[in-house]
Design goal:
Rossmann fold; 6-stranded parallel sheet; 14 strands; 17% strand
Length: 420
């Protein structure tokens, strides 16, 4: 039995909260006969339920995955400076993992956002003669430089730049969730043949666990309208102000049976409500956040699903939003208002892509979808579902991961035999 260690300071589980990617990796690897350890911080701001810890390292079995919760310093929020101290602490502590309680790894997957454990992961890989895969979910420090306004010459940015290059240099493979990150990674010293694109994924079995909407919520959604819906965080980054502008344009163009449903909470919600009130819009309904398990039931009621993001230079590397996959799994046509380096909706043929932050383009896209036949929209939705299962189901992503690992093992064996 091969053993995989997944080192992810921000790993969660289905029972503790985000981030789920390492959990789903682990679940699929276990099904295929691997022994899996997920090594995570016992405290981080994405967890909804914190594990009970009994020392520096607490072991917990979750769905046949062995979690190793590392005791780390707590911090108030994502912007607390103590969070930086936690990065260093986690990186240092994993060098002292109690190996007597663990199986030695054949493969170590070190997953960023934080870069501060890639050095330790490489030391562990060397110590146990394991393959090292460096998984990059956020491109640091570039994200902080372009979005946070930090100077590249800032000492902390330079440290992270060194760690990024270190990871690309020493890893056997580099996994990216972004399809167009390869050129950037190569500019930072990664060899071309190390790159693997493994996007964000979906767990097919979780979609079987749908929970019906409460009647109170159902009654808020018009039954006799052409429904355009959004479900998720109602924040500035989601560019929903432009959807409200588009709702006004659609109404002014005489599309009286078109209605917009925005489901979720966030900092922009009151602002959007005031916009709709100021425009005197009776074609927009706001609904509070629903359970994740209820999203499928909501999407069944919609005719079109909307996803948008504000313009960000970093999107040139591509995007991989989980919300998009929920829409595709619901087999609904999608209006995609994101300026990104990849075009998943176009690639899948499951909707219309329009310019981000452009209310006129959004309105025209909605009217175009409205004017299509029901059969055309149905076929769009089916193409999206087929695409997301083939390209984003975790069972398929993990098959690609295993194939890459096995090939790298074969190469190592070939090299060993030539040296004998």
């Amino acid at each position: 039995m091969k053993t995989v260690w997944i080192i992810n300071e921000y790993a969660g589980s289905k029972y503790h909260g985000m981030v789920f990617r390492s959990y789903y990796y682990g679940r699929e690897l276990v099904k295929r006969g691997y022994k899996v350890y997920v090594i995570s911080g016992a405290y981080h701001h994405n967890l909804k339920i914190f594990p009970k810890i009994t020392g520096d390292f607490t072991f917990e079995e979750i769905d046949k995955i062995t979690y190793v919760w590392v005791d780390v310093p707590k911090y108030k929020n994502a912007h607390d400076k103590k969070r930086v101290y936690k990065w260093f602490k986690f990186g240092a502590k994993i060098l002292k993992l109690p190996i007597e309680k663990m199986d030695k790894p054949d493969l170590i997957i070190d997953s960023s956002a934080s870069l501060f454990h890639i050095y330790s992961a490489n030391q562990l890989a060397k110590k146990y003669n394991a393959k090292l895969f460096f998984e990059v979910r956020d491109i640091w420090p570039l994200s902080l430089i372009e979005l946070g306004g930090y100077s590249p010459s800032h000492p902390f940015m330079r440290l992270m730049d060194w760690l990024e290059r270190y990871g690309y240099k020493h890893a056997d493979k580099v996994i990216s969730v972004l399809p167009n990150a390869k050129a950037h990674m190569m500019s930072q010293g990664m060899r071309k043949d190390k790159f693997i694109y493994l996007p964000n994924g979906i767990a097919l079995e979780d979609y079987k666990e749908s929970t019906p909407l409460e009647e109170e919520i159902k009654n808020k959604i018009p039954k006799d309208k052409f429904l355009i819906g959004y479900a998720g965080t109602v924040g500035h980054a989601n560019a929903l102000r432009h959807l409200i502008d588009a709702a006004k344009m659609v109404k002014d163009r005489g599309y009286k049976n078109t209605h917009f449903v925005i489901v979720g909470n966030g900092k922009d919600k009151e602002y959007l409500k005031n916009m709709a009130k100021e425009y005197d819009l009776d074609n927009v309904t706001f609904i509070d956040q629903i359970l994740k398990s209820q999203v499928s039931s909501l999407l069944e009621m919609l005719d079109v699903c909307y996803i948008g993001l504000i313009n960000q230079p970093l999107f040139r590397f591509g995007v991989s939003p989980n919300k998009l996959f929920d829409y595709m799994m619901a087999a609904k046509p999608i209006l995609y208002a994101i300026n990104s380096g990849n075009k998943p909706v176009e690639e899948a043929g499951c909707g219309i892509s329009v310019e981000a932050e452009n209310p006129k383009a959004i309105a025209e896209g909605i009217m175009k979808l409205h004017d299509m036949s029901e059969e055309e929209r149905r076929q769009m939705g089916e193409r999206g579902k087929k695409y997301v299962i083939e390209n984003h189901a975790y069972e398929n992503l993990v098959e690609r991961l295993i194939e890459t690992f096995e090939k790298s093992e074969e190469k190592r064996e070939e090299m060993s035999s030539t040296l004998v």
